[in-house]
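S.,

Sequence below, as promised.
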Amino acid sequence: MIATRFMELRRRRGLMIALIGVTIGIPTIFLAVRLLLHALAPKTYGPAGGYNIYTAMVAGVLYVFGFIVAATLGCTAGSVDITEGMFRHLVVTGRSRLALYLARIPAGLAIIVPLVAIGFTVVCAVCVFAAPKSIQYDGVKVPPGLSLSGLENWAADHADTVVCQFPYNAPTLSIPCGNGPGGGQVFSGASGSAGSIQATPAAIKAQAVQIAKQDYSDYSRIFLYPSESLMIKSGLWIELEAVIGFTVGLGLSSLIGQRTVAVILMIILEVILTPIFSRVHIPHLSNLQRAVVGLATAHLEPGRLPLAFGGNRGGGSGSGSGVVDLLPESTTVAVCVIVAWLVGWTILGAWRMMTRDT
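The prediction came back faster than expected:
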């Protein structure tokens, strides 16, 4: 029965082309264009890969589009028999209606999970193998992966650049940074008033080391390419979002008996309602907001990724660490909300199929 459901969905060529085009085609074309532009004009266009490209693709493209295509597939699987008049013929065969519904879940997941995995693999491969060779920190090329002492030694060797361009809170030095009128002498640092001190080579080097020590926490959060642990966590998170989209779409379309309205409602949930409920704190409705599955999924987002719908994140790693703009919610509550949505919409979809008139 599962194999039959799988074949029915796979033979819908228009649907499969759309799924492949969004989950694999969009990331591949975008990264291919970046590779080509960098190869033709490397000074104008930066490397195609790297940590920043990875975070933008995962949190900004795969997260949203993965949910939408999974929801589209789920809405199709939940309503195709009804819209095409095949539901009566399936019931006449004597097969269990519950089994007919449940068979669509593994059949649909067998399609959407590999597609999302392939698109994610393309992003990971390009972002790792086409990553830049050095990082940019406040417009300065800095060697990656330095320890605190390593960054201090590098700052001492490039003291003028560090004092002129790195952010810091310290007494300022009067040195020629080359950014004043006619390239003249400029006070570097936060202010050039009475707090500044006259620079000597030794003073400049000492202050550069102090600046490196102050900025090391920010520098240490900049990577050339994503780590293996981040890619594994991100991949599982993206797949979880796809599973949620498919399961909820399947139950919703089975409940209302059509695909178009269900797809529209799923897009509204992902693109409009989830960002609003995640970021806007509505008085006396906080618990209702926490019941939105998109907010729960956002709290399980791996650290080192920006918020999927914009906003700031703190540092750290692990599920949901460093989130500062989301409505507060514990990891346990987030997991319970996701399980409730998966189980609840499965029950609703199965109940509607079992009670539907033939």
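The radius of gyration is 26 Å.

Coffee later?
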